[in-house]
Amino acid sequence: MNKIDIDTIFKERPLIISGPCSIESKEQIYEISAQLSALGIKFLRGGAFKPRTSPSTFQGIGSEGIRFMREAADRYGMFVVTEVLDSVQLEEHYNEIDVIQIGSRNMASYGLLKTIGKKTAADKKPILLKRGFSSTINELLLAAEYIINEGNPNVWLCLRGIRTFEQIDSIFRFTPDLASIIELKQKTDLPVIFDPSHAVGDSKFVIQIAKAALALGADGLLIESHIDPENAFTDGNQCVLPEDISLI
Ligand code: PEP
Ligand code: MN
Fold first, then answer.
1. Angle between helices 179-187 and 137-148 (to 10 degrees)
2. Closest residue by CA, ligand 1 atom 10
C-alpha cells in the first residue's frame, strides 16, 4: 500500500474509516475488508488491543489481530487504523499501522502522547486522537498539542460523544457532541472526524447522526461495521453492515 498522501487525502470528503470494533479472526477481517473496499472505503479500522472498562471482559486478540488486519488491508488496498494502549505495543507494531488511534480513555495520557509524538516525528504518520468522553474541547486541543510539539502536525481530531447527565436515562450511549464540530472548525485547522457509533451506541441511529455530522462540516467519519453485528465480540449493538454506509 502506498503511503497516505496527507496533502490530498481530505480533499476526497468525506474520509471514511470503518471496520469492526474488534478483530476477531482472519476470516472476519478479510471478509469485511472485501466488503468495505468494494464500497470504495480505504481506511480499515479494527481493534486488536481493546481498552475495556472491565479487565474480565474480552481484551482483543492482540498482535495476531494486527497481523491479520495488515494482511487483509494489503490484499484489498487499504490503510490500517488501530489503537495502541502503550509504548510497548507502539514499538512492536509501528510498521504495520498506517494511522495510530489514541482512544478516548488515553486522550489525557500525556506520557503516551509525547512518546507517540516523538516516534512519529520523522515520518509524520497520522494520529487519530479521540476526545476523552469527559474532556472539554480545549483539553482535546491541548492533547493534540502534546503530539504536535514533538514534531508531528498530522493529528486528526475525533469526536465520539461525551458523558453528560443525559446518560441517566437517555437511549444514547453518550451525548453526541455534534455542535463541537462547528467549534473545532472555528478553533483549529486540524481535520475533524466524527464517530457516530460510540456517540449513540445503537446502529439504528448511526447513519442519521453520520449525515448530521457531515452537514455540520466534519471532514470524515469513523463508523463501526461488522459482517454479523449480532455475533460481534464487542460493540455489536452499534455496528452497522458495510452496505449501510452507502446510505450516507
Ligand atoms: C473504539 O474505537 O473501539 C473505542 C474503544 O473508542 P473510544 O476510545 O472512543 O471509546
Ligand atoms: Mn468500539
1. 40
2. 104
Residue 106 has which C-alpha cell? 488515553
pTM above 0.85, yes or no: yes
pLDDT in tens, 22-75: 999 999 999 999 999 999 999 999 999 999 999 999 999 999 999 999 999 999
Report residue 5 CA to chain centroid gap. Answer: 18
Which numbered atom of ligand 1 lies nearest the CA of 158?
Answer: 9
Number of neighbours of residue 170 by Cβ within 10 angstroms: 13
Q: What share of the chain is helix, strand, coil (3-state, %, to 5)?
A: 45, 15, 40
Q: How far is CA 204 from CA 9, 163, 195, 232, in A?
A: 29, 20, 14, 16
Backbone angles phi, psi at 219, to 5 degrees: -85, -20
Ligand 1 in reach of 103 Cβ (< 6 A): yes
